[in-house]
Amino acid sequence: MGTTNIYHHKKLFKLENGKKLRGLEIAYQTYGRLNAKKDNVIWACHALTANADVLDWWKGLFGTKALFNPEEHFIICANVIGSHYGSTNPLSTNPITGQPYYLSFPEFTIRDLVKAHQLLADHLLVQQIKVLIGGSLGGQQALEWAIADPSKIDNLILVATNAVHSPWGIAFNESQRLAISTDRTFYAQQPEGGSKGLKVARSIALLSYRTYDAYASTQLESVNHKVTDFRASSYQNYQGEKLCKRFNAYSYWYLSKAMDSHNVGRGKKSIIDALADVKANSLIIGVENDVLFPLSEQKFLSEHIKDAEFHAITSAYGHDGFLIETDTLTNVIGNFLKESINKKIIKLHKTA
Questions:
Q1: What is the pLDDT of residue 349?
Q2: Alpha helices by DSSP H, 124-248
Q3: What whole-number distance in Å separates Cα of residue 154 and Cα of residue 129?
Q4: CA-based diameter of the chain, in Å?
Q5: Which of 83, 87, 136, 208 is catalytic?
Q6: Sequence-ordered list of residues with C-beta below 8 angstroms from that of 75, at least 6 positions apart, any chain
Q7: Does pLDDT of 220 surpass 90?
Q8: pLDDT at 340
């Protein structure tokens, strides 16, 4: 089992936009132990509504009998700023006012999420990361980290992610925020505010996470007489309600904006120049029928990150395949890491 901890940052935390957070807290979990050589760190970056318990949400890839297991590795997963699961977020108490932030919480970017986790890495005395891995918004974080601190990351694994969030992805997120903002309770300064809007937002999001074929195989009617109460309708309602029970509209609002902010080229000469800064041995994985992060985005990453390996996987689940197809991911990532070790051995022989 993982150990849940809270990192308390004692100084003011300056965000990319210049605003500051006082009393920043980062929730995180660790599994296993750091070995004597301090070279067994696996750092997982989570997606939009996930948490620090990577053994729970990425079962099959992380776990006692999985590729990334606590017996061999020191596994770390930290909850992002703004999230519902323990890190400083819009429902946290603003130390200046003594009241929850709600919509007075400052906007933040992917780079801010990374900066916070770099502070946590320093706190945990992590000098080197053997594998930095993330999918979707988690992949955006992993990529920014590999650019910001290239010498610290040995192996970078990016799954179903991109170098810059697309107009298509931003449009999906804006549609979800429009749904949230139509719920008047979102402006009522209460923890449950915006929950009806969040339900609709999740329903919209699900259409970008899955595919036509996924719905056809799981929500198809078995009878021909229906004119209402369809399985697909019930499914959308169920998924919306399920998220409302475990998340809040304010965190969702801010995190979707953070995803929109993702652009590794900001402040650089270009996106391509930024990707050239990655020094890690890199594996880029895409899902062939991903509607939200199409394969072209992962191909772009592999073409502009030096010597990156690219692999496309098939899944009936579209974008959500990065969480579901763990057997395939285990095979692809396992082979990649074996090759990485072999390359190191060959390099050592050459320099000996």
A1: 55
A2: 137-148, 167-181, 195-209, 212-218, 231-246
A3: 6
A4: 75
A5: 136
A6: 2, 30, 31, 32, 42, 43, 44, 54, 55, 62, 68
A7: yes
A8: 82
Provide mean pLDDT across the span 169-193. 97
Instruction: Give the pLDDT of residue 232.
Output: 98
Question: Once rounded to an integer, what is the mean pLDDT over residues 41-66?
Answer: 98
In the residue annotation, 136 being an active-site residue is answered as yes
- Residue 159's Cβ-count burial label (10 Å; 0-12, 13-18, 19+) is buried
In the residue annotation, 349 being an active-site residue is answered as no
Q: Is the pLDDT of residue 341 over 90?
A: no
CA 335 to chain centre: 23
On the question of pLDDT at 45 being above 90, the answer is yes
Task: Give the separation between CA 221 and CA 125, rounded to whole angstroms.
Answer: 55
Active-site position among 53, 183, 260, 290: 290
Q: Which helix (H) or strand (E) holds 347?
A: helix 326-351
Do 283 and 336 form a contact (C-beta atoms < 8 A)? yes
Asked if residue 213 belongs to a known ligand binding site, the reply is no
Per the DSSP assignment, residues forming a β-bridge with 31 are 75
User: d(Cα 187, Cα 210) in Å, to the nearest integer?
Assistant: 31
- How many CB atoms are located within 10 Å of the residue 24 CB? 19
**Domains in the chain: ranges and CATH:** 3-166+265-351 (3.40.50.1820), 169-259 (1.10.1740.110)
Tokens of 233: 């309708």
344: confidence class by pLDDT, cuts 50, 70, 90: low
Beta strands across the sheet bearing 3-8? 3-8, 25-31, 74-78, 41-45, 129-135, 153-159, 281-287, 309-313
Please check if 56 is assigned to a binding site.
no
